Amino acid sequence: MGGTMSRVMCDFCGAADPGWEFPAENFRCLESGDGSAAESDGNWLACDACCAHICANDYELLARRSLRNPSMAAMRDLLGPEGVEYILEHARLFHAQFARHRTGEPVRRGAL
To answer: Is residue 49 included in any domain, yes or no?
Structure first.
């Protein structure tokens, strides 16, 4: 069979095969100084651990767990140990935006 299969990952920590989906509105996130911004499009996927942190409103542990995400790990490697707090601050801001745009409770994947 041709082509590649995309790997489904937790939107927070990057864990494979997340079991939960959080309904959310689309929103612009993390605007830069030049006015450009990333877009968050729809629902967010979460593994069991990240789902538990979100449901407990423990966004600090969620931010720390997000350091496992491959894109965050790459940034951490680039910035070095002193860049960890910078990365955590961006994760906290991004997660706060997610929390504001979340529209419901988590649902087991495939049940939406």
So the answer is: yes
Distance of CA 93 to the CA centre of its chain: 11
Q: 101 or 32, which is more confident?
A: 101
Coil, helix or strand at residue 79: helix
User: Which residue segment(s) compose the domain that 56 sits in?
Assistant: 20-25+39-108
Please give the tally of structural domains in the chain: 1
The string of DSSP codes covering 22-59 is E-B--EEES--TTS--EEE-S-EEE-HHHHHHHHTT-H
Give the number of other CB atoms < 10 A from CB of residue 67. Answer: 16
Asked if residue 3 is part of any domain, the answer here is: no
Note the pTM of the prediction, 2 decimals. 0.81
pLDDT digits (tens, 9 = 90+) for 18-59: 999 999 998 887 655 566 667 788 899 999 999 999 999 999
